[in-house]
């Protein structure tokens, strides 16, 4: 006979279409390991409460271990009626150990069970994402150290702005990914609240001590304080979705920079062949597909966040079946980001910077701010200095000269006290070295930041 978790009050069988619509086993089977861990802890709690004997508890634990092994080695055979992972595990347990299996669900509901499973799963995968972020940070750090003094144009509005170093650019992304890691840590901390023992919604009346469960399930450090909230809460998932989506946005921005920088027009970096692909028609093409996919994948991460928030927004207390929809999107976001981060770390580690192309893209106009700063050092108010240098830029354009080619007379026309020392401004390395405020692009500062990161990432 089919093992069902419900059905006594039903006179008619479930329609085949309804089964297909309702069943979640095909995707929530991913929770099997955490589901079994939760059930083992629950069996222990039932024994402690005197609801099952020590022998029954041992039988259940051994049986659950057997089921776990069947899933792990692929010998588990799903059966018609395995509505979800919880049903499948209990059905198989029943076949393996007999009557004791019928006591496992005492005082428990699939509502607190699945809420516990998802938290355990989410904590595990969030930690993995944290490690992937760390690996990407290390790849960026290696590049930053190698290029702490490599000059390149810095952009605002994608217009040449001021000279910076390539190492500084790398460290900007390192900072972003550090915030992502912290956000994930924060979300994990809030996920570590145990719903198990909340029953269907109201609590359990059979004397199961929930506090003891946090000892058996050491991912949890406290029990949920309200049984209704315990089964209804998916905030931690929304938080992780947001953290994942924002990491995706950061990856997308990194990718966009590298797509631009690896174009022939820029040529600042060359991606490894291993992370590029070719064209079926144009033999010369080498496309930055790794980066384009990183940019594109962020769309699903954002979409999955919005999907979950949308599912939750209209739900009355407490559990509603809508919540089954929390799973596929989260699995998808995890899988997507996990692989994206792995690819990003490898692509960053293997890309080759081309300092000569970066240098060639610097032009004198990018030193206009340095000229204005020089006038400030001569006692000119900055707003006036800005306007005077603006006029010099316009003169240079009129005369079709670069700023350093403008004769001294032009400089003296805007500020009579200037002498030929003004030409010392036309030195990109000097410009960068002077940005020595903390967090600035001066190679010295970049190296200090690298040393700080090295210390933290050890
Ligand atoms: N498959 C369900 C889910 O993922 C498990 C909980 C079912 N609870 C219930 N009362 N039908 O949400």
TrEMBL record:
Organism superkingdom: Bacteria
Reaction(s) the record says it catalyses: 2-(N(omega)-L-arginino)succinate = fumarate + L-arginine
Gene3D superfamilies: Fumarase/aspartase (C-terminal domain) (1.10.40.30), Fumarase/aspartase (Central domain) (1.20.200.10), Fumarase/aspartase (N-terminal domain) (1.10.275.10)
GO MF annotation: an example: argininosuccinate lyase activity
Keyword Transport: no
InterPro entries cross-referenced by the UniProt entry: Arg_succ_lyase_C, Argininosuccinate_lyase, Fumarase/histidase_N, Fumarate_lyase_CS, Fumarate_lyase_fam, Fumarate_lyase_N, L-Aspartase-like
Cross-referenced PANTHER family: ARGININOSUCCINATE LYASE (PTHR43814)
Name used for this protein in its record: Argininosuccinate lyase
Species: Candidatus Viridilinea mediisalina
């Amino acid at each position: 006979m089919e093992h069902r978790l419900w059905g006594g009050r039903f006179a008619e069988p479930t329609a085949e279409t309804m089964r297909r619509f309702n069943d979640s086993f095909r995707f929530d089977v991913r929770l099997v390991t955490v589901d079994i861990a939760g059930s083992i802890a629950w069996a222990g709690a039932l024994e402690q409460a005197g609801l099952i004997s020590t022998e029954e508890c041992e039988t259940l634990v051994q049986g659950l271990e057997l089921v776990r092994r069947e899933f792990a080695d692929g010998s588990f055979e799903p059966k018609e009626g395995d509505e979800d992972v919880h049903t499948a595990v209990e059905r198989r347990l029943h076949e393996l150990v007999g009557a004791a299996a019928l006591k496992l669900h005492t005082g428990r509901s699939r509502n607190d069970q699945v809420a516990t499973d998802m938290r355990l799963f989410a904590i595990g995968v969030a930690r993995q994402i944290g490690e992937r972020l760390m690996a990407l940070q290390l790849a960026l750090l290696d590049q930053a150290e190698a290029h702490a003094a490599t000059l390149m144009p810095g952009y605002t509005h994608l217009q040449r702005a001021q000279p910076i170093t390539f190492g500084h650019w790398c460290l900007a992304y390192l900072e972003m990914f550090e915030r992502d890691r912290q956000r994930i840590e924060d979300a994990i901390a809030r996920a570590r609240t145990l719903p198990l023992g909340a029953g269907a919604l109201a609590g359990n009346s059979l004397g199961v001590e929930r506090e003891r469960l946090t000892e058996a399930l050491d991912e949890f450090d406290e029990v949920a304080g309200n049984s209704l909230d315990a089964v209804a809460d998916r905030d931690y998932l929304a938080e992780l979705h947001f953290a994942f989506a924002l990491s995706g946005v950061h990856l997308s921005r990194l990718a966009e920079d590298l797509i631009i920088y690896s174009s022939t027009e820029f040529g600042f970096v060359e991606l490894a062949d291993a992370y590029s692909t070719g064209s079926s028609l144009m033999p010369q093409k080498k496309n930055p597909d790794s980066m384009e996919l990183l940019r594109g994948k962020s769309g699903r991460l954002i979409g999955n966040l919005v999907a979950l928030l949308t599912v939750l927004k209209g739900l009355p207390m407490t559990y509603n079946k809508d919540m089954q929809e929390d799973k596929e999107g989260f699995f998808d976001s995890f899988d997507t980001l996990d692989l994206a981060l792995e690819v990003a770390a490898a692509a960053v580690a293997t890309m080759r910077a081309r300092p000569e192309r970066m240098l060639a893209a610097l032009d004198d106009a990018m030193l206009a701010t340095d000229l204005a700063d020089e006038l400030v050092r001569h006692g000119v108010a900055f707003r006036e200095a800005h306007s005077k240098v603006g006029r010099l830029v316009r003169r240079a354009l009129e005369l079709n000269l670069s700023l350093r080619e403008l004769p001294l007379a032009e400089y003296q026309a805007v500020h009579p006290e200037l002498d030929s020392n003004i030409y010392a401004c036309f030195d990109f390395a000097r410009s960068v070295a002077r940005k020595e405020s903390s967090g600035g692009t001066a190679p010295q500062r970049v190296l200090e930041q690298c040393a700080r990161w090295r210390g933290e990432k050890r």
